[in-house]
Design brief:
The chain is α/β, with parallel strands linked by helices. The protein has helices at 16-27, 34-43, 47-58, 64-75, 93-106, 120-129, 168-182, 184-191, 204-215, and strands at residues 4-9, 30-33, 83-87, 112-117, 130-133, 139-141, 160-161, 195-199. It has one domain: Rossmann fold. Helix 2 packs across helix 3. The structure holds adenosine-5'-diphosphate (ADP) (2 copies) and zinc ion (ZN).
Amino acid sequence: MASVRVVLLGPPGAGKGTQAKLLREQFDTCQISTGDILRKAVVDKTPLGQEAAAYLNRGELVPDSVIVNLVGERLKEKDCENGFVLDGFPRTIAQAESLERILKTMGIRLDGVLSMQIPHDVIVDRLAGRRSCKNCGALYHRVFDPSTRGGACDQCGGELYQRDDDREETINTRLNVYETQTAPLVNYYGQRGKLSEIDGVGKVDDVHRRIIQALGGVGN
Ligand code: ADP
Ligand code: ADP
Ligand code: ZN
């Protein structure tokens, strides 16, 4: 199977995490979801978690230096040898520039950046109904993709929970943060010829197919 090295870009709720899991399975790459890594660090009360907790609660970005070091280390791990799916990183121009430097020293390049787009009202519906498994991280939606076992995960039986930052006030902050700090990456990657725009509305499988189509020929 061809290797793939991609970034999933898009506002909160665009479906980055959902699609990252599918790509990881299909291409046997690693999946680097910075939000997942940070939330786990908070639960485990590691030094990283203690530093990051307040930012996550407010819906603001963790400082670039913290996140860049974390991703830089993660990319060196063995399961990333066959490629990677970056979900939620980079989120600022400075992070994108750091990523470029990191990949250069590793002698590899990004295949592409998938910019997932959904309208504002869909974002709010998706975030308000999002549920995640405490144990394995599987994603559900209260309405669009409910677990068949009520409050328990279909895959592992773990407890489903709603993220603290998926509440209305924090959602607004996160959308503002996206518009001001992350959306400029669409142009950044567009100018570098890396960008594919993906319509994020529709069934999960349909969105996945659009992504595969956009990646056509990648890594061959
Ligand atoms: P979503 O996918 O809903 O946008 P994430 O799970 O990716 O949310 O991120 C949750 C939170 O983790 C962010 O609001 C931010 O506080 C922090 N975070 C995640 N990735 C980054 C990053 N690349 N840079 C800075 N902060 C980040
Ligand atoms: P992001 O990582 O971009 O914040 P997620 O992948 O966590 O987004 O998806 C946000 C919520 O929307 C989750 O509850 C997920 O189950 C749901 N979701 C993801 N993709 C779709 C889709 N194509 N249609 C309907 N709901 C979706
Ligand atoms: Zn689970």
